[in-house]
Please model this.
Amino acid sequence: MNVLVLHTLAPAQPGAGHTVDELDLDEAARHVADVIPGAVVRGVRGDVREVVGVIDAHRPDVVFNLCEAPLGSPCLEPHAAALLEWLGVRHTGSGSDTLALARHKPRMNAVLAARGVPVPPEGVYPAIVKPADEDGSTGIDTGSVCADEAAVARARARWPGPVIVQAFLPGREFAVSLWGCETPDHASIGETLFRNGLCLNTYASKWDVDSAEYAATPLDYRTGIDDALRAQVLAAARGAWHACGARGYLRVDVRCDAAGVPCVLDVNPNPAIGPGIGICRGVEEAGWAWADFVARQLEWAR
Model:
């Protein structure tokens, strides 16, 4: 099988709220290619002609799609998948429609709610203010949790784009990894442990490995989760998969409300895939070999 691992290159000047490290996919691409015999790795800026030229040059049977920020812009993530679809090239992961839906949090929440998947309510305090069209905790810091309307106004003013305001839930938080072809047949659950007074995942806690916030939010796959709660967390995450039409693999952030009901905070159909993090850690914690996971993704490509 002729496999092309296609990834976007980190821009020299990332946009507001992003860092070069977040958008650097070189290591992730090599991590995937290392377990695919004969795979070719190509980094692209994301210009349409450039991508078409790479596809024409390599004629892949399947593309392992790691194009997360074409032209340095994460909002163009669905466009890369759409281009592959338009060219008739099989690619791993979710389709462009799912990627586009996931990048618009208000629309995604409406879809989830319509399918009976619990999401945090609006108009309730304390609230959290976060960008409406970002992922990876972009734009989220300790000032994003607001006690009243005045605090919400201040948080809104700090972010240049549209935001979503939801209730800040006080319960346990889980990162759920799901994978399968058309259905989420496999899963693992990690719990974020909040320490030193931190109560949420911030951008620094996700991407700044030298920060105090990163140290205060370890993800633990060994915490005790009783059977009833585990079933509810998985039901919420799998409900999100079906609601957005995911394929291949998905990460879902789930947090419990004051009554202990798990609600979906975020749906990420193109999660981090580097060694020891994101979906890679999730599948390995479930006992899967990384090479087996990658091989299945190639089989499931559409």
